[in-house]
Amino acid sequence: MVTSHQKNIATFIHLSTFSRFFIPFGNFVGPLVLWSINKEKSNFIDTHGKQAINFQISILLYALILGTLSIPFFIFKLFNGLDVIDFNGFNNFHINVGKPSPLLYLGGFLGAVAIIAFIIELILIVVASLKARDGELYEYPLTINFLK
């Protein structure tokens, strides 16, 4: 049987991922510290800790892939038409605002996907913490199980 103390620890493991808004890499450090201290006390805590850490690592991996895909589109548009060989400082410097490039649209779309994914991530963390509070196990969707 899962005690209220175990439920609280599992809930705090999930909620500690929000510490990233105050501490750099807090979304990894918070759950990792809470999980490593309490993982021997209960299988319930161990399972929730692994899920929270696996989800954060998966989100980082997905963000790196999405960033790797989207950032070059903005850079290519920014430096489009810049002649590096015949660069004379800022003499006769002008910015041509014309028709947007399809690369800009694709990069903007990927940026919108990133924002939507961030909102979904926050919702999933809250759902996982509520499940932990109720004493239920929760598996994040699209999570790669690095810790088994």
From TrEMBL:
Location of the protein in the cell = Membrane
The transmembrane segments are 21-38, 59-79, 103-128
Q: Which organism is it from?
A: Neotamlana sargassicola
Q: How does it sit in the membrane?
A: Multi-pass membrane protein
- Listed Pfam families: MamF_MmsF (PF09685)
The protein, known as: DUF4870 domain-containing protein
Keywords from UniProt, A to Z, are: Membrane, Transmembrane, Transmembrane helix
